[in-house]
Specification:
Alkaline_phosphatase_core_sf, 10 strands, ten-stranded mixed sheet, 35% helix, DUF1501 domain-containing protein, Alkaline Phosphatase, subunit A, 14 helices, alpha/beta, globular
């Protein structure tokens, strides 16, 4: 049963239902709505009013020290539950702490397949991937991790992915022959670590091990064995007892992911760290209250991660953080959709999202309203870190660089 807020339905912007308006006009109106909300609420200024060179420092010595963290606001969230007057209560940390420090891009379009894994694969390659969202296959095109490591001759310990579920175990490396095996990121699946640590006696951790909200028919058994135990001990420097004791204090898989990410930062200090969140995707269950709870938890965890960056000497002052949804969710007024529950229609609400960048080299308190695509992230990271994403189909974000 879908549990939906009548108040939320009544506050949906009129431009999402305007007859005769094409998709581009609606997307532009949605972006402008975000812009005005942030100008009025957070006091951001329009980037078009600024002039001068990019604040990014380009020297080779600076690039060697630079670190980038990407957080995908996984599963998608709509404006009426986030960056709109009626949604602001769900993102107090983003709105009051992170947005004022950020460059905020209001018009990010995802023109690819709107599935959690395939959309994340597209974000990592800069190409709209067409793989089966429910197959454990690698992206077809080179990933940002492969570009980064090959061009800059970085070791495996310098690029990591913390991923939420079974299907992401091959997200760190593509099938592209010109790069080959062993040139991508190491992927850590926190649920696999927990499954290995519990040795099958995981009854106390069911809330942390639930996998794949989108298609209940696709629920492969969670792995986890000697390899994961070696990751716990050799990489994260955690005993099984300590890991399980901390896991018992957590309420969701994303909390477990952020815990692992912070351990990686302490032990390995990777220059490129990618974290994909998943709690919001509980919306597929149809419970609006759980969807809102997922947004509020993600809001808190993003800020917790940024605070950890500032407290870590390896990261403070030289780290750029990017936060962006992989896609949105259906509008309540699309006859072919299910509102917040799914992202099946490909309508404007499910395709037009946002991105914020903050930290080293980023202008603070600025809004950029020009259209960009989600696949533009990879070439932008290349420009920042000094590698060439040759097969990416995106373009560097000029307002960022």
């Amino acid at each position: 049963m879908i549990i939906r807020s009548a108040l939320t339905r009544s506050l949906i912007p009129e431009f999402l239902t305007g007859a005769g308006r094409n998709q581009r006009e609606i997307a532009s109106a949605l972006s402008s709505s975000r812009r005005e909300f942030l100008r009025n609420t957070a006091g951001l200024v329009l980037g078009s009013t600024l002039s001068g060179a990019s604040p990014f420092l380009r020297g080779e010595s600076v690039r060697k020290k630079r670190k980038v963290i990407v957080v995908t606001f996984g599963g998608g969230a709509r404006d009426q539950e986030t960056f709109a007057p009626e949604g602001q209560e769900n993102i107090p940390h983003l709105l009051n702490e992170l947005v004022p420090q950020s460059s905020f891009f209001t018009h990010v379009s995802n023109q690819g397949i709107l599935g959690h894994y395939v959309a994340t694969a597209s974000l990592t390659t800069g190409v709209y991937e067409t793989l089966n969202n429910f197959s454990a296959v690698a992206p077809e095109h080179p990933t940002v991790f492969e570009y980064f490591r090959k061009d800059l001759k970085r070791p495996a310990s310098d690029a990591w992915v913390v991923a939420p579920s079974n299907g992401f175990n091959r997200i760190g490396e593509s099938e592209c022959r010109s790069y080959g095996p062993g040139t991508g990121a190491t992927v850590i699946l926190p649920k696999h670590l927990l499954a290995a640590a519990t040795s099958g006696g995981a009854a106390d951790f069911d809330h942390l091990l639930r996998d794949n909200y989108e298609n209940p028919l696709y629920t492969p058994q969670l792995g986890g064995g000697e390899f994961e135990l070696q990751q716990l001990d050799g990489i994260l420097r955690l005993s099984v007892a300590d890991f399980m004791a901390h896991a018992r204090t957590l309420s969701s898989p994303d909390e477990l992911s952020i815990y692992i990410a912070k351990r990686l930062m302490q032990q390995e200090a990777p220059s490129l760290l990618w974290i994909t969140m998943h709690d919001i995707d509980v919306a597929h269950s149809g419970a609006y209250s759980l969807y809102i709870e997922g947004i509020r938890r993600t809001d808190r965890l993003c800020t917790e991660l940024w605070n950890a960056v500032q407290a870590n000497p390896e990261y403070a002052g030289n780290t750029t953080l990017f936060i962006l949804p992989d896609f949105g969710r259906d509008s309540d007024y699309d006859a072919g959709g299910n509102g917040f529950q799914h992202h099946r229609t490909g309508d404007v609400a499910s395709r037009t999202t946002w991105m914020m960048a903050l930290g080293a080299g980023v202008r603070e308190g600025v809004i950029f309203n020009d259209p960009m695509q989600s696949i533009d992230l990879v070439p932008s990271l290349g420009a920042i870190m000094g590698f060439s994403p040759a097969q990416s189909q995106g373009k560097p974000i000029k307002d960022l660089l």
